TrEMBL record:
NCBIfam families: ccmC. Belongs to the CcmC/CycZ/HelC family. It is a multi-pass membrane protein. This is Heme exporter protein C. One of its GO terms (molecular function) is heme transmembrane transporter activity. Its main location: membrane. Keywords: Cell inner membrane, Cell membrane, Cytochrome c-type biogenesis, Membrane, Transmembrane, Transmembrane helix, Transport. GO terms for biological process: cytochrome complex assembly. One of its GO terms (cellular component) is plasma membrane. It comes from Plastoroseomonas arctica. Required for the export of heme to the periplasm for the biogenesis of c-type cytochromes. The keyword rRNA processing does not apply. The chain crosses the membrane at residues 43-63, 75-94, 106-125, 137-160, 180-201. Coiled coil: none annotated.
Amino acid sequence: MPWLWGATVLVLGIGLAWGLAFSPPDWQQGETVRIMYVHVPMAWLAMGGYTGLVIASLMSLIWRHPLADLAAREMSPVGAAATALCLATGSLWGKPMWGTWWVWDARLTSVLILFFLWLGHAALVRAFDDPERGARAGAILALVGAVNVPIIKFSVDWWNTLHQPASVTRLAAPGLHVDILYPLLTCALGFTLLFTALILARTRSAVMERRIRGLELASARRHEAARA
């Protein structure tokens, strides 16, 4: 964890400084393009993180691995925060570019649904007194919601939307100049490290909490047996 946090601070610090202070403005978007250095990584993490949630849910349902349950439980608040930042920064970008804070097109609506899926999972896994029941219910919700991820990805190709198509991950050459592309990729790596560090830290805390509860329960049972 110390090495991971150190790498996170270093890479994210370089990426944000590079993108927000030293990269040139876009010829069309002007200074507004700097919102992209947060918005695009958050969008990638929202979808990539949900894919990780689906994998953890499969491990939970198939192999009943308790660590997968804990990882999924701690992943959903972080994923919801990333998706909320994606929506908020997208609105900040949309106002000067589109003239409106929000439009109900396929890309924006499907990302909003993803946000509600993250929130639903976070609430559902904590809604039961039995952690295993909550984990199972959350895993089923995550798997059902997995159909939304390809809809988000390909919505700009399947439907006529305001949102522009992919400009970084397309098969042809990226549609961004290297002066913008490189700091964007650096920010994406930094935010990915931050996302990973937060999930690992939360999962480790959850493991320690469960161990403490187990020790307290065992101690209480020993006291009851001694009294009997």
